[in-house]
């Protein structure tokens, strides 16, 4: 496995119980004017899926009008040359193809392959992590939620009677397939917490929500390059170069896996110890800051990794 250093950390946040929502409520949701409603709604699910299909990632699809969804609407408005306010309106709805959209939810039969990285509970202490072979998904529902860009609680709400075992059929949303393009430039905008991927002619091929560093441990400023890409990377924990986790004061090799400190992907940058990577906690992107790296959902990071190569320009802007 490729090993890289990263000045990154993550914060686990408590989840709250979600209101009941059904596949019919999502399928029948229509836009009748005004902003997205407060609370969980079928309309918000539909808008999130349409943004995902438009290559403007809303992050975790959960049916709530949160910060990531608002930022995604703003990013869509910017790309389409509209007035930017982050609020759903008729023009945004029409440009997303809301009235003529194909099915937002679908049925999926779970396969053994879907659950290949389901390993059960993982320790939080890095020294204990280092003893494992794989930091896989804690539950089958978590594995499936990531596959369809969904929040785990939202998936279980849609499937209250499922045990998520291989062979069973569940209701999921229908996001897009991964984008395919040759990215020439990545722009990380710290204030909006969005990452923009562009081709050589300036075409925006994808836009993603990210976490960046805090004022105490900021992300870098300036222009760098991609050094290399690692899928399912190991993580080298070095408290002398990065940060200290708990009482761990020795270098540790943390195994790969979607629930590792850098998730499923590491895009190494020419700035030593910095990179763009996945996360074990996608719902926390807009509520937790990194130690300087750029953190993405695992599925967004995998998509980006498939479009970049060594030498791609990475610009950090305020």
UniProtKB/TrEMBL annotation:
Source taxon at top rank: Bacteria
Gene Ontology process terms (BP): cell wall organization; peptidoglycan-protein cross-linking; regulation of cell shape
One Gene Ontology CC term in the entry: extracellular region
Keyword Transferase: yes
Domain annotation L,D-TPase catalytic: ranges: 184-317
One GO MF term: transferase activity
InterPro entries: LD-transpeptidase (IPR050979), LD_TPept_cat_dom (IPR005490), Peptidoglycan-bd-like (IPR002477), PGBD-like_sf (IPR036365), PGBDSf (IPR036366), Transpep_catalytic_dom (IPR038063)
Alphabetical list of CDD domains matching this protein: YkuD_like (cd16913)
Spans traversing the lipid bilayer: none
Positions of the catalytic residues: 277 (proton donor/acceptor), 293 (nucleophile)
Keyword Glycoprotein: no
Keywords attached to this entry: Cell shape, Cell wall biogenesis/degradation, Peptidoglycan synthesis, Signal, Transferase
Pathway(s) of this molecule: Cell wall biogenesis; peptidoglycan biosynthesis
Annotated signal sequence range: 1-19
Family membership noted in the UniProt record: Belongs to the YkuD family.
Protein name, per record: Murein L,D-transpeptidase
Organism: Sulfitobacter aestuariivivens
Phylogenetic lineage: Bacteria, Pseudomonadati, Pseudomonadota, Alphaproteobacteria, Rhodobacterales
């Amino acid at each position: 496995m490729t090993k890289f250093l990263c000045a990154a950390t993550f914060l686990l946040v408590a989840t709250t119980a979600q209101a009941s929502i059904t596949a019919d409520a999502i399928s029948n949701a229509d836009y009748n004017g005004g902003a997205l409603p407060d609370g969980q709604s079928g309309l918000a699910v539909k808008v999130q899926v349409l943004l995902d299909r438009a290559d403007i990632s809303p992050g975790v699809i959960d049916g709530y009008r949160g910060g990531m969804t608002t930022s995604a609407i703003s990013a869509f408005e910017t790309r389409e040359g509209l007035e930017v306010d982050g609020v759903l309106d008729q023009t945004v709805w029409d440009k997303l193809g809301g009235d003529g959209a194909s099915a937002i939810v679908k049925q999926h039969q779970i396969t053994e392959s879907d659950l290949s990285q389901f390993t059960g509970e993982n320790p939080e202490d890095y020294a204990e992590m280092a003893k494992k072979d794989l930091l896989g998904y804690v539950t089958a529902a978590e594995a499936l939620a990531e596959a369809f860009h969904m929040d785990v609680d939202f998936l279980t709400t849609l499937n209250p009677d499922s045990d998520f075992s291989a062979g069973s059929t569940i209701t999921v949303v229908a996001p897009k397939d991964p984008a395919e393009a040759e990215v020439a430039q990545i722009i990380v905008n710290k204030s909006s917490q969005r990452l923009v991927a562009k081709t050589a002619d300036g075409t925006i091929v994808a836009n993603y929500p990210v976490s960046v560093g805090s004022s105490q441990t900021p992300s870098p400023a300036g222009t760098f390059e991609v050094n290399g890409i690692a899928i399912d990377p190991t993580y080298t924990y070095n408290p002398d170069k990065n940060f200290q986790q708990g009482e761990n004061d020795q270098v540790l090799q943390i195994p790969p896996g979607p629930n590792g400190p850098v998730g499923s992907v590491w895009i190494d940058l020419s700035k030593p110890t910095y990179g763009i990577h996945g996360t074990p906690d996608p719902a926390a992107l807009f509520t937790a800051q990194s130690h300087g790296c750029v953190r993405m959902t695992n599925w967004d990071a995998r998509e980006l990794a498939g479009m970049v190569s060594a030498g791609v320009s990475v610009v950090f802007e305020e």
